């Protein structure tokens, strides 16, 4: 009987899917739900409610991992909204509408750091509960790269891409409100991700046939190439869509497979430790953002856990019956 129970458990566990890392995203299109993207295969699973009637403004979102809450800009880039992954609820954040160029979530203060579209450029801190905005700093620049930003929460630094020939990395100290901008070598930068190991900002050259992963020193603007490696043709960085997992040193971003027609968008995984890059097609649509997200139990884990519990209960009851 014990052998029967053991074999039953083995079969059950073998049949249980292994989710691993999933990335939260959404197509750039009206009236579509959110997605969970498997970076190991490119497979996508619809998740959560449909956003109607507007669509998520591409590349502008911030994620509160502790509360499993996504903040995003909708409509024509002027309205902040929130999506609770645990409940599936979408809510409009009150307050005046504004045009935004970048948003990041500050977990230390539970506020949204945002770059407002105007010149000189205001950087503000927004209370997601009330929508009230508090000025942090004003940046004198002639250009902003839309959607390219990163945040160093423990170090109280917010980074975004400014300037025009050459590009500049602008750092706003959230504690002191000091602003510094330094030029960088000429290159198109597809995204920014903060790296706590190096203390710099990760990036890759956008639309470059010979791409690489490099880290930018925000104090000097100097760039250090981490690796170029064997780079698949389907992994050319295309837009300001990325996510970084510091615990695994894996950088995820969106690429374009130029070997297909129409061009297929890919999900790219760059392992900074193993120095490898792999890409998987996700389809002809455009992904508007990427965020690290575990599978929410209420929305997706519930049925799986229920099935697992029912199967285990059956095995236990069968074992007890056999002993009677």
Detailed description of the structure:
The chain starts with a helix and ends with a helix. Helix 1 (2-15) packs antiparallel against helix 2. Strand 10 and strand 11 (133-139) form a beta hairpin. The protein contains 2 helices and 24 strands. The strands form 6 sheets. A 4-stranded antiparallel beta sheet has the order 3-2-1-24, with no helix packed on it. A 4-stranded antiparallel beta sheet has the order 4-5-6-7, with no helix packed on it. Strands 8-9-10-11 form a 4-stranded antiparallel beta sheet, with no helix packed on it. Helix content is 13%, strand content 46%. It is globular, with a radius of gyration of 22 Å. It has 324 residues and is mainly beta. It has a single domain, classed as TolB, C-terminal domain (Neuraminidase, 6 Propeller). Residues 1-19 and 296-324 have low confidence and may be disordered. It has helices at 2-15, 297-323; strands at residues 22-26, 33-37, 44-50, 56-64, 69-74, 79-84, 90-92, 100-106, 111-116, 121-126, 133-139, 144-152, 157-163, 167-173, 179-183, 193-195, 200-203, 213-216, 223-227, 236-245, 250-257, 264-271, 276-283, 291-293.
